[in-house]
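Hi W., the sodium ion complex you wanted:
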Amino acid sequence: EAPNEENLRSPVCCIMGHVDAGKTKLLDCIQGTNVQESEAGGITQQIGATFIPTDNIRDRTKELKADAKLNVPGLLVIDTPGHESFVNLRTRGSDLCDIAILVVDIMHGLEPQTIESLNLLKMRNTQFIVALNKVDKLYSWKVSPNAPIVNSIKLQSEDVKSQFDTRVRDVIFQFKEQGLNTELYYKNKNMDETFSIVPTSATTGEGIPDLLLLLVQWAQKTMVEKLTYHDEVQCTVLEVKVSKGHGTTIDVVLVNGVLHEKDQIVVCGLQGPIVTNIKALLTPHPMKKYRLKGKYMQHKEIKAAMSIKISAPDLDHAVTGTSIYVVSPNEDLEHVKEKAKEP
Ligand code: GTP
Ligand code: NA
Ligand code: MG
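Structure:
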């Protein structure tokens, strides 16, 4: 299909950075959830995905008076762990995404896994936006809940403004040492050459409207071709896990195409291709009380981009990080199985 602004899929955005920079907390703040508090030791240990519908983004960015049209259905954000031992999960996350958020703790600046994440993004030429998080930790910061960051900074004392300027300058210098030009997004005149920094607080919501709007606008402006929806299924396995009442399931990210209940699929397996049929397409229940009980919504079909739990027989030996293939009625199964053998 030709690039078409009216037929875009949601961008897949990966959130990366050093341990405890606030990646999960930022997603919680965006979603109104509290995943972060339920994590063991507050450490993210697996990849998780969050879908933010455009209506929600429009609502949250009202104050920014953006009249630009938002053409994408939403934003699919993949959370990754920052702990050094999870490099494979970070790699898998960054492999999948169209765009990324690199979270930096304003009190710490660039840290080892910030730089490691940065190198993963550079390697794949992935565009990213820096969330310079925890601005509320600047000494005597005055909170304006959920405010656009410029409004919030205007209300700060000269002393806070000067702490802020110093820390921003330091971070820009540290990026420069890594060979990258960065600038506060509202001062950035050339997003093609200079990466944007959005100051945020996941605790107070300040700067979140800016971050969401910038991500969506930038993605739809610069990636129309890549984001044009097409029917060919492009789908990656993130996790293989046992799910109560569903047996072994696979958590996937559907980047393009549509999956249907009963579709015949081929999944890469440890002992060769697994041929199976989709029993259920599941997404987390939209209502919190059901989600907390581990309840899922079941769908007849799901269109990309979306994160989905697939329940199907024989998934025990499915391999994470691999693609799944749908066998269409006029396709040769053996041919599809060959594709699923390639790593
Ligand atoms: P890993 O997934 O383990 O790599 O960490 P993470 O980057 O997801 O960080 P997480 O969201 O777990 O936050 C780490 C700690 O920082 C938690 O105690 C959060 O409450 C706190 N935190 C995160 N963002 C902010 C912020 O903007 N301001 C303040 N004051 N605290 C924050
Ligand atoms: Na953490
Ligand atoms: Mg986390």
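Residues 17, 19-25, 36, 42-44, 81-83, 133-134, 136-137, 201-203 surround guanosine-5'-triphosphate (ligand 1) (CB under 6 Å).

W.
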